[in-house]
Amino acid sequence: MKKIGKVISSMLLVGSIFFMVSCKTNQPVDPVDPPTPPAPVLKKSISSIQLNTVNVKDTYYLGEEFSKDNLKVTARFTDGTSSDVSDDVIVNSDSFDNTVVGSYPIIISYEYEGRVRRNSYDVTVKSIADMIDPHVVGLEVEKEQVEFSINTELVLTDLKVTAVFSDETTKDLTADDYVIDKGLVDMTQPNIYPLVIKYSENYSQDSASEEVTVKNFVLITVTDPVESISFIEGTTEFEYGSKFSTDDWKVLVTYASGATAEINNTQFSNSTIDTFKSGTINCSVAYKEMDVTKVISVPVKVLPNPNADYHINKSLVASSLGVTEGVQVESNRKQPLPASEVDDFFTLQGTVLKYFKSDKVSVSGVEVAQDGSISFTIEGTSKLTMSVSSNGGTNTSLLKVTNSDGELQHQSTSVPETSVGYISIYSSSTNTTVEFSLPAGTYTITFVSGVDDSTNVSQPTNITATRAGRIASIKVTA
């Protein structure tokens, strides 16, 4: 019996474990969030360099040699990072002269992947043998224009130079008093250059004499500005409703020096294109460099919608067309529309009423007044079909379709035209179908009703019988 009890106990224990495992297995699995796509990797480029000159020697006495010791330079990049590049910079101290009292610019350059960024700081040379008072101690130099385009003339007529003396007096100098040293300025290469001004005075005491020369500078920036940009290649034809993209566009940048560079859409900005409107649309492309912005227009073609009727743009239908207390006209019977449907229906001013569905171009039951005209805009090559008639005795109605330039559009059916370009709709109890093949554009339908056959059709006479001419339906299709 004890053995049987142990066996039963064992079986119950195994069953419990199996039940617990089954319950756990049937529990719903928590959904796993899809992995977050990696952020796009932007190309790293140099944006600026910053100088730390706190521990750099910036004051020298006559005869002392220049030193760049303890200069710290930090490069900052477009991805937000920075790096100590003190050992990799080029220090240009060509303007430094330890034999002449004055101030001198020290220009620091750093190159990263073909792009160069520059900065500068100033050092001063002083005299330790000034025994005469007052004596010249420095120059003040001002210049209005300090930035020039490459290969242009360096203008010097706007220089203002003032000598400063030890007793704090000053003297304005003329161009004959000082010497301009342009040797460090190269107008054929973009860079920052010091334009050096020198002034000398002779002093004597007892049997000794000394010529004291002071100098100062202004920094001249020679730039190579963008002269123009032009479209090189890229997709400019898109399917109706597809995604507009400039990812494969390439633009050529031409500089004043004649140098060129090729850029992509990470470097220029552009307007977007609505691909749910077919036709040719200009895409604006802009590129900015050194405060110079150049803009071009690139024609982009959106192909017609192959699966839908062409639509009239409500905002461009006609100046005389507007939302009103809508009236539907069908089979010569006017039927008021509910207020909730007014947005989908329109009426022309006067006695011309027409019924528009908002989702397609479709007009039915249109009565035409003497001076009534219907203007509309279509997208893509389309077919305009009108059912028209002249209902009065011997009367003939005249109808024409013109584009936005007033040019007559000739119909593809065999309805006669008059000498003034109108189509003659003769008196008939049945409707006449008139068809036009029209490219994208804005068109006007003009209908002159009730012209007597005996009247010279080159000068049609309007009459008051507005029911004499009638457009039964208008439709624009692909």
Characterize this entry briefly:
The chain is built from 1 helix and 34 strands. The chain has 478 residues and is mainly beta.
Structural topology:
Layout: H1 2-25, E1 46-52, E2 59-61, E3 72-77, E4 82-84, E5 90-92, E6 101-112, E7 115-126, E8 136-143, E9 147-149, E10 159-165, E11 170-173, E12 179-181, E13 191-205, E14 208-223, E15 226-233, E16 237-238, E17 250-255, E18 260-263, E19 269-270, E20 279-289, E21 292-302, E22 321-322, E23 327-330, E24 333-336, E25 346-348, E26 353-356, E27 362-367, E28 373-378, E29 382-390, E30 395-403, E31 423-425, E32 432-438, E33 441-452, E34 469-477
Parallel strand pairs: 2-7, 6-14, 9-14, 16-21
Antiparallel strand pairs: 1-3, 3-4, 5-6, 6-7, 8-10, 10-11, 12-13, 13-14, 15-17, 17-18, 19-20, 20-21, 22-25, 23-24, 25-26, 26-27, 27-34, 28-33, 29-32, 29-34, 30-31, 30-33
